[in-house]
Design brief:
- With about 650 residues, the chain is an alpha+beta fold.
- Among the domains are: about 120 residues; about 100 residues, Dna Ligase, domain 1.
- It contains 16 helices and 35 strands.
- The strands form 9 sheets. Strands 13, 14, 15, 20, 23, 24, 31, 34 and 35 form a 9-stranded mixed β-sheet that branches. A 6-stranded mixed β-sheet has the order 3-2-1-4-11-12, sandwiched between helices.
- Strand 13 and strand 14 form a beta hairpin.
- It is globular and about 80 Å long.
- About 50% of the residues are buried.
């Protein structure tokens, strides 16, 4: 019996997989203490499964504790210890504008202010120490740091990725002087070159780790009290880690929530036989977009989150503030806008009847008939149409619009935000979305999927039967994973040198994972031509084919190769993984209940057929129609047709 729990901005989702069954449940997210919402969702799922907490063998958890803290600029009281003369590296950054054409936009302020940055009297060069840090100097630095009363310390010294001796010495001094205070050493957190990115990532790791550790400790105690196993935590890379590792390095979990959706997308790609998917997860607060190519989720070696660089491997996800709870508003120029502000879980959209008064995308979909006041949402949320009409009507009056026209405008504006995110991940990166199927999930994803596919020229949309809780399903099936990476900076390395680096990193990753015999290793080598500033990632090359694979990729990406240029191996990364359980589930052949209601599509009212329940294999429905799944709703516009496959996934295609 496997349990996956995903915390979203509005709902917390739980999935239990056992004996070929999937049992799902939702509960409102509890922002003040996410563990309360987690246990509420778990209790509901266990009750539906007729099981006890003690029956659960593995508990995988994706959450937004670190994400929310980073975006809000919250964190523990942190001190930054950096090489003398380089304490302001994070504040200086790359000296690039936050926005090229908006001069008033600034980068986020460093998490550690200038008065809590401590200079370390040492200097390490690329070939070794230029100014040694002796034990007495390390103790003196630790004393200065202690005087600042930190809750966490980030230690970032020059060239520590190649020569970590000084960082280790200072870490030992801090452990003696400040026992119990969290310390992040940059060579342990990142382990690669580029000082700004390494320093910034370590600062984030130090500031967030005490918060995440406190949450995981509380979550673990509550899980133990009811008989659940200790939670495994989803990392930004798409693999699970034990709670201890996650608590030590919170930077690994900043994209914990979206990574669960990416893991689910890979699972569906493998089960459906469709290896190229453009995926979007639309929940109550945001929309996350990722790409599955050849059955694997596209990954990146690092990215910015909330304007802060994180030099860590993670799934390549683009997020925008467009969800069912996104609030619609009138901007200074009189235009209709939606998001990024969200009604969240408390009070939620106006139609939830929990005190919300502002118009949201969910209120608009209810007015358009795509949601129904007689069909409660997952989590037993009853919808109040009159409250939605009051909220949307107030905005419509200010815009001088008919309320229904305003509601449809809100949906179109939210779709435009998601469309931009889909284009960022495809067209802007040289990918033709028409060659992909659109995988839509999240509670609100199916309501907008066909319209987005129309805009992108895509002919197929997939909406899984567990759409509303698919990220939680991905957590239950995810691998356990640990990654080791190192900057090499070797010109034209021999096959033997490449193999030696890979072997050493593989052993390090296996030690971190704690499993050796059954671990599966995968390799990424980042290479470039000498003189270039950035690298291309070559996955799982044989040691004697590194150059050939790099040049083929360079020609594919940039249109040329240079057979005379020197190729540099910049960074090597090895991941050890322990595959998750093979999930299977049966689809019962039971017909859904059919009714009819009026639904608005493209400004016109249609007498649409409505199907309620889980689809049986081959069951079909022609648009205009609505399919109400247990945790999500799918809109089938005129000109589209939906048919369930053997997995219960609704496959939407344009009707011939």
């Amino acid at each position: 019996m496997l349990l996956g729990v995903d915390v979203g901005g509005t709902f917390t989702d739980a999935v239990i997989a056992f004996d070929g069954r999937l049992v799902t449940a939702k509960a409102p997210t509890t922002p003040d203490d996410q563990s309360e919402g987690v246990l509420a969702a778990v209790d509901a799922a266990l009750a539906r499964a007729g099981a006890r907490a003690q029956d659960v063998e593995a508990f995988a958890h994706g959450m937004t504790v670190a994400t929310n803290a980073l975006l809000e600029g919250r964190g523990a009281r942190t001190v930054l210890a950096a090489t003398e003369g380089f304490t302001d590296v994070v504040e200086l950054g790359r000296q690039a504008r936050a926005d090229l054409y908006r001069l008033c936009v600034a980068h986020p302020a460093p998490l550690v202010p200038a008065d809590r940055r401590v200079a370390v009297p040492e200097r390490m060069g690329p070939d070794g120490p230029l100014r040694a840090l002796d034990a007495e100097a390390a103790d003196a630095v630790a004393e200065r740091i202690a005087a600042l009363e930190p809750e966490a310390v980030a230690v970032c010294l020059l060239h520590a990725d190649r020569h970590p001796e000084h960082e280790r010495a200072l870490g030992e001094a801090l452990a003696r002087r400040l026992p119990g205070v969290h310390v992040s050493l940059s060579h342990e957190v990142v382990g690669t070159f580029r000082e700004f990115e390494r320093f910034a990532t370590t600062e984030v790791d130090a500031a967030l780790s005490p918060l995440l550790a406190a949450y995981l400790r509380r979550m673990g105690e509550r899980a133990d009290a009811v008989g659940l196993p200790a939670p495994l935590v989803m990392q930004s890379s798409g693999g699970l880690a034990d709670g201890g590792r996650a608590a030590r390095h919170a930077a690994l979990t900043v994209l914990s929530g979206p990574a669960g959706g990416a893991a689910a997308a890979a699972l569906l790609a493998a089960r459906s036989g469709r290896e190229d998917l453009l995926c979007f997860d639309m929940g109550g607060t945001s929309c996350d977009v990722c790409v599955v190519e050849g059955g694997s989720v596209r990954e990146s070696a690092g990215r910015e989150v909330g304007g802060r660089p994180l030099a860590l491997p993670m799934v390549d996800v683009h997020t925008v503030g467009a969800g069912g709870g996104s609030i619609a508003w009138r901007d200074g120029g009189g235009a209709l806008r939606t998001g990024p502000r969200s009604a969240g879980a408390d009070p939620g959209p106006a139609c939830y009847g929990r005190g919300g008064t502002l118009p949201t995308v969910t209120d608009a979909n209810l007015m358009l008939g795509r949601l129904d006041a007689d069909s409660p949402l997952a989590g037993s949320v009853a919808l109040d149409r009159h409250a939605a009409e009051r909220a949307v009507g107030g905005l419509a009056q200010g815009l001088g619009l008919d309320p229904l026209a305003c509601a449809e405008g809100m949906v179109r504006v939210a779709s435009a935000e998601m469309l931009r995110a889909l284009r960022v991940m495809t067209v802007e990166q040289g990918i033709d979305p028409r060659a992909f199927a659109l995988l839509a999930f999240g509670g609100a994803g199916g309501l907008h999927a066909a319209a987005l596919a129309d805009e992108l020229g895509m002919g197929t949309v997939l909406c899984p039967r567990a759409s509303g809780v698919l990220s939680a399903l991905g957590l239950a099936a995810a691998d356990r994973r640990a990654t080791a990476q190192r900057t090499v900076l070797a010109s034209e390395p021999s096959a033997e040198e490449v193999a030696a680096v890979i072997d050493a990193l593989g052993e390090e990753a296996e030690r971190e994972l704690g499993v050796v015999a059954s671990a599966r290793l995968s390799t990424v080598l980042e290479l470039r031509y000498a003189g270039q500033a950035h690298e291309l990632a070559v996955r799982d090359p044989e040691a004697d084919e590194v150059r050939a694979r790099f040049e083929a990729l360079h020609e594919e990406r940039y249109g040329y190769r240079d057979v005379r240029a020197v190729v540099e191996l910049v960074t090597a990364r090895v991941t050890a993984s322990l595959p998750g359980a093979e999930l299977t589930w049966a689809v019962e052949a039971r017909p859904t209940r059919r009714t009819r209601r009026t639904v608005v599509f493209d400004g016109a009212q249609h007498d649409a057929q409505v199907a309620r329940g889980e689809p049986a294999p081959d069951e079909a429905l022609a648009g205009p129609a609505i399919w109400e799944l247990p945790e999500a709703t799918v809109a089938v516009p005129p000109g589209w047709r939906a048919q369930a496959d053997a997995l219960g996934t609704l496959v939407l295609e344009r009707a011939r």
